[in-house]
Model the fold of this input.
Amino acid sequence: MKVPTRLTPPWRSPLRGPWLTSVFAVVLLIGIPILFLTGLVSYLAYNPDLSPVNDKTPEKGLLGFYLFAWPTDPYWLYRVTQGVHVTLGIVLVPVLLAKLWSVAPKLFVMPPVRSPGHALDRLSLLFLVGGGLFEFATGVLNVQLEYIFPGSFYPLHFYGAWVFIGAFVAHAALRLPRTVRALRGRDLRAELRTPVARTVPEPLDETGLVSRDPAPPTLSRRGALGMVGLGSLALLVVTAGQSIGGSLRGTALLAPHGREPGSGPNGFQINKGVTAVGIRARDIGPGWRLTVRGGGRETVLTRAELERLPRHVSALPIACVEGWSTSDQHWEGVRLTDLGALVGMGDAPPSVFVESVQSHGSFRSVALRDNQVRDPRSLLALRVNGAELSADHGYPARIIVPGAPGVMNTKWVRRLSFGESSWPV
Done:
């Protein structure tokens, strides 16, 4: 008679236990709130409460309680906050995966539901784990593949972030005392000095993370922490350069637009060119005109007439929601305040509605607040770095505003409407 083979128990790693899980948890406890706050800042920077064209999550309701006018100073603010948001999100991926690995026995416990209380706990874990994976996955995919969720990334990421952070805060509050006890129970420096040969499982406890039948160790906890740390460091090296710039830009191997795209005055990054948005040669050719409206008046200007208006220079970067940014470029053009004055707006024009000639794609029109319009560095740019704008960089004219996300710096502008009582959609 054949004796049935005994199944090997799963989750036998001798490394799993409350202490290792708590170490990963502390890193996430610091990093995830920063991710969430910089994500809120990213949404705020679009001035979504100003106009429907700026707001990609119009049903946000009370979730927009914190919105206020996005400032133009410091002019590098969005470059820093969005660079931190994207870079930190990518750097935390190995930590998140390691944390999920460390608690796998709890995620796949059988039977899955034992009582009403246990069912609620499992539901909270679904929101926590599912929300975390969703946010990280959609963020990384959007950065790497560019608009993989056309028209839906903003609401998906925005609402997903609120669901995730709610579950995260609740989970952290409930588990914090246990995390503190676990960290106090073992000395970090001692663990970092412990080789594989002396690695033993943590004592059995009520968490259920420690295996009752552990396998022989093939890696020390020092090795596990080092492997995760090196993974995060490697991702930092191949990502951060897209935001930092300078000599580090060449190391941004994971930045689709972050590396140097070429040389010359127009040799800096773009996120969309004329071909991608359906612009034809005649749309930006000699027949192009700029219409300026406001206060019941309208002025139509050729590019040659724009060139004859007083011109100014602003040194400003382009910073994209995907995390990449340029160094300061020297833009030359007409101040938005001067264009407002052409239609009687005076020295302090109100908000302006900007429309592009592009035929499709997101943000082909945007609304800019009065504080953005009135900043003397805000221009309708005609030239950059001493040369005429290239077609991909917005020829014949583009907006450049300090501190605004890249897509708010509209290219191929055809109309400026100052002080509209109701914004076009």
Observations:
- The beta strands are 290-294, 297-301, 312-316, 329-335, 352-356, 365-368, 379-384, 387-388, 398-400, 413-418.
- Residues 1-8 have pLDDT under 50 and may be disordered.
- Residues 153-185 form the longest helix (33 residues).
